[in-house]
Every structure is written in C-alpha cells, then in structure tokens.
Design a protein that fits this description.
The complex is a heterodimer. By secondary structure, chain A is of the alpha/beta class. Helices cover 29% and strands 21% of the residues of chain A. In chain A, helix 2 packs across helix 3 and helix 3 crosses helix 9. Chain A is globular. By secondary structure, chain B is of the alpha/beta class. In chain B, the strands form two sheets. In chain B, strands 1, 2, 3, 4, 8, 9, 10 and 11 form an eight-stranded mixed β-sheet that branches. In chain B, strands 5-7-6 form a three-stranded antiparallel β-sheet. In chain B, helix 3 packs across helix 4 and helix 9 crosses helix 10. The relative contact order of chain B is 0.17. Classes of the chains: A alpha/beta, B alpha/beta. Chains A and B meet through helix 4, strand 9, helix 5, helix 6 and helix 7 of A and helix 4, helix 5 and helix 6 of B.
C-alpha cells in the first residue's frame, strides 16, 4: 500500500513537478488543469509553495484545500459558486492560470483541439476549439502533451484553437496584450518559447530521456541550448504529498515509466 | 394568468423546417432530450442547431435533421466526442459554424439584448476567424484603439431548455449547481420552449429550493411541457445523474450500422412513453 511513498521518483512524478512549477508565483488566481499530471501539479503547488491558489471542483464551484484524486464530491468543501457563465468573468479578467491539453502543438505554441485535416471536412473531428481561443489571449496558458510524437508536435497545427506567438503577433496589440504561453510539458521534457523569435526551445528533459529521443519525436526543429538541464526531481516532502494526492498511482498510467 | 402548459408534441409542433433552434444545457448535462426525441419523430428538417453540444447534436445529425451546427464543442463529457456529430463532420454532410465558447455566450447575450454584436478579445489570432470569414473585428472608439472581435448576435427562431421544475405560468427552477446559459438561450429566441421534470404549483416551486434556483422567469417562456425523466440519458441533478451505461451503449452502437438500427428501433422509433418504458426495462 505504501509503495508509492518509498519508491524513487518515476518520470510521472517528474511530470507532476513540471506541472506544479507552472503555478509558481501565480498567487491568488484560479488554477485550471486538464489531465492527471496537471491536476496533481496544481494540487501539489496549492499544498506547498503556492498556498493562495484557487482550485475548481471540476463542476460549478471553487473548492477549499487540495483534496486527493477521487475524493467523494460530497466530501469537498465548496467555498464559492463558479458556474460556467461566471468562469468567463474570471477568464476575461485574467485571474486564471491554465494547463490545457493539445492534440497538436506547433513550433510557436499554436494548439489544436478542433479537427485534424481540412477543417471543412476533417479526417478526424475532435472536441472543438472550446475556450482555447479566448483563454490564450486573456491569461497565462501552458500545455500538457502526454504522448510526445511527430503527430502531436507538428510544424504547423491544422486548426489554430489556442493561439501561439506568431499568430498573436499577426493579430495585433489586442491579441498580444495579455497573451503568454508559458511552456509545453510532455512525457519527454519541458519546452518554452524564451527565444528571440518565440520558436519552441528545450527547457529541460526528463530523467531517462535523451535529446535524440526528443528530436526524433518532434516534427520540427527545436531550439536546443548548449547546456541542457534535467527537469527538477521532487523532494522527499513533495513525493509524500504526491503519494497522498494520488494513492492509486493514476499518474503512472498516464506516463508509464 | 396565462396557462402555458402543453403536451410534448404541441411544444415541438412550434418548430418548422429551416428554423434556427437553440438547445440549452451543456455537453451531456440537462439537455431537453425528450424534445430532441420528439423532433426526431417529426417531419421537421433542415435545422440550424445552436448548442453547447452534446448528444442532442449527435442524435439530430444521425437523423438527418441538421443543415448547420453552431458550436464551440460537441462532447458527451465522460466520452470526449459524439460519434454521430463526428461522422457527419467527416462525411461533410453538415455545415459548421465553430466559435470559441465565450464568443458563443456573447452571441446569445447580444441577441437577448437586441444589439448587433458584442466585442471580445476571444477569437483574435485563432482559426475561428479563418473558418468563419463572415466574422468582423471592431475598433474601440476610445483612446485605447484596440481592435476586437465583434461577435454577432446569435438570434434564434426558437429555444428549448429543460429545467427541474416549472409552474403552469412558465417560471422555471433549476436545482442543479449550474444554470448554464439557458436564460440567454430563451432571451435570444422568438419562441421560448421549456420542458421540465414536473409542472408544480408556484407554492411548491417556492418550497423546492432557495430563491436563486428560480432563475427562469415567466418573462422568458411561452410554452411549458412536463417530460418526466426528460433529460435522460444526460445528467439532470439532483433528480438523476447521467446514465453512463446508456450513454456508452449510444456511443458504441453508433459505430456499427446494425447495432445502431437496433438502438434506434428500441429507443427512437417509439414515442416518449415507449422510450421511458424501454429504459426502465434495464441496461441496453
């Protein structure tokens, strides 16, 4: 039962840490996270270095604290009512930090969750752009891609849902004013856009991954720094918190060792 | 005081082919599914469906009732996409107007306020503007001079929403945690159609929950029809949750013509009483 507290950190744990780091310094904002590692990352940040972070219950409320995954909804403490209509007030005010998922992500941080192929008659209809266009021009946004491959990291996405740096710049000052794509976290590494032309750069690679693995899994040329850092490992304290938040080890199904 | 009660068939009888119809709820939550099933049985077709889409969109696509869908997403929540909507898009058999879900909200709000558009940052830089070339931007007349998306009013010929309780005069009560955008769908529509789990007296409405649950005023409703279990198989909390087993059967059968024919024969080619009887017989 306590295996997860005594195990050494797996790559899934490192992904949780990378997601938690997205929220460092965010302060009292609404943290929204999609996927297992981002959900755990937000809760880890809330429990450790970012105590003012505000988490959602995944339905229509903000919840107190940062409960473990799978907590019975009846046991959640709902501190505020946050129906969808009110969510837009938060999004458009900028008081939010978000990790979304991406079916495709490209060199300048454009994201696609709408459709694969020609939008008029797609080869694969996905869920739709959802709130990605509005999110990305209103508050900091990062992405979680648990299946890094040339199919997910593409030279140019088929339908720009979340807006990347090149497209925001082309759209003008109203689009760039609050636009910030912080980073892309995959099962292989962490990537950002801290380059002169905002092209995607390797920020760090996860333990057990080589830069050749990343280059082979990416459908465009990444900016590769001279010295490549390894993604930060969890501390013992953080490992204990992660184990408490995810006692069943769900994160290791999302990112196998 | 006007008595707005009608039968389900009378309510759906308000619709005509070619109309733009808004459908309330969100994803696979509190959808007016009894009304959707009644549309499937009707001869209405060629609809423009405006929806925070769920299986309402999927069923109408499967039945060939849809000319165009206006959407930000179509999802079954616990299943990421609706298979019938996906198939219709991939076959190119429907037109699509895809917008950011916040733009969608502003379109309904503009329509309900009788103004032509509302400005927003949402959509700037995205392919929403590429795939909807009719969308325009607008420059702020103030010193900031910002150029924003002008989301046009989403005016509706009719809207259908499903609420937990309503009284005969058409005041509606939503007992679940999220009223979604139902009030705006009704505000944006010429004919405002409400289905409900139960029509009760105003006194019972008052006793059924706090004031803020009575969020659909009779100013916004023309017709009320009682459709018990009428949001099934979508969630209608606290009356009932989503029927996940049924939804899975819906989604799975969509992939196989023979299985879909069997599903349709058992659940869709019957009237609402027949549907509810078939559902109560157990898992599909």
């Amino acid at each position: 039962m306590n295996a997860s507290t005594t195990d050494s950190p797996t790559r899934a744990d490192v992904c949780v840490i990378a997601c938690a780091e997205v929220f460092r310094g965010a302060g009292e904002v609404m943290a929204s996270a999609f996927g297992t590692a981002p959900t755990l990352g937000a809760r880890l940040a809330r429990r450790t270095f970012e105590p003012d972070l505000v988490l959602t219950d995944g339905d229509a409320a903000l919840m107190a604290g940062a409960p473990p995954l799978g907590t019975d909804p009846a046991d959640l403490v709902l501190e505020s009512h946050m129906p969808y209509r009110r969510v837009f007030d938060v999004v458009w005010s900028g008081r939010r930090s978000l990790i979304m998922m991406a079916s495709q992500i490209d060199r300048y941080g454009n994201q696609n969750i709408s459709a694969i192929g020609d939008w008029r008659r797609p080869t694969a209809q996905l869920v739709g752009v959802r709130g990605a266009p509005g999110n990305t021009v209103n508050h900091p946004t990062s992405y979680w891609v648990p299946n890094h491959s040339p199919r997910s990291f593409v030279a140019a996405v088929d339908v720009v849902s979340g807006v990347g740096y090149d497209r925001a710049a082309a759209a003008g000052a109203a689009a760039t004013r609050f636009h910030h794509i912080d980073c892309v976290i995959s099962n292989l590494g962490v990537f950002d856009f801290d380059t002169p032309g905002h092209a995607m750069r390797v920020r760090s690679i996860h333990p057990g991954v080589t830069i050749d693995d990343i280059v082979a899994a990416t459908g465009f040329d990444l900016v590769i720094p001279d010295v490549i850092e390894e993604t930060r490992h969890p501390t013992d304290e953080e490992m204990a918190v992660i184990a408490e938040l995810d006692p069943k080890g769900t994160r290791r199904r999302e990112v196998p060792a | 005081m006007a008595d707005k009660r009608a039968t389900l068939d009378e309510l759906v009888g308000e619709l005509r082919s070619g109309m733009t119809v808004g459908i309330g709820g969100w994803g696979s939550r509190r959808k007016p599914m009894a009304a959707v099933r009644a549309i499937l049985r009707s001869d209405v077709e060629n609809l423009t469906v405006v929806s925070y889409g769920g299986p309402d969109v999927g069923l109408l696509c499967a039945a060939g009732k849809v000319a165009r869908v206006v959407f930000g997403f179509v999802t079954l929540d616990s299943i990421p996409t609706d298979p019938h909507f996906r198939a219709a898009r991939q076959a190119g058999s429907i037109e699509a107007t895809e917008v950011d879900e916040g733009m969608f909200y502003l379109g309904l709000l503009a329509a309900s306020q009788r103004i032509p558009f509302l400005p927003t940052r949402a959509g700037l830089g995205s392919d929403v503007l590429r795939v909807n070339p009719e969308l325009r931007t607008v420059r702020s007349p103030y010193d900031d001079g910002e150029e924003l998306v002008a989301m046009p009013a989403l005016r509706l010929d009719a809207a259908i929403v499903h609420v937990n309780r309503a009284d005969p005069a058409g005041s509606g009560q939503i007992l679940g945690p999220d009223p979604f955008f139902d009030e705006l769908f009704l505000g944006a529509a010429d004919r405002r159609l409400v289905t409900t789990e139960a029509v009760v007296s105003t006194d019972e409405l008052v006793g059924g929950g706090p004031l803020q649950t009575r969020c659909i005023s009779r100013l916004l409703t023309d017709v009320v029809a009682e459709t018990p279990h009428g949001a099934h198989f979508t969630a209608c909390v606290p009356d009932y949750g989503r029927d996940e087993a049924f939804q899975k059967a819906y989604a799975t059968s969509a992939g196989d013509p023979e299985a879909w024919a069997a599903f349709a024969s058992r659940y869709l080619e019957v009237d609402e009483d027949g549907y509810q009887a078939a559902v109560s017989e157990g898992a599909p």
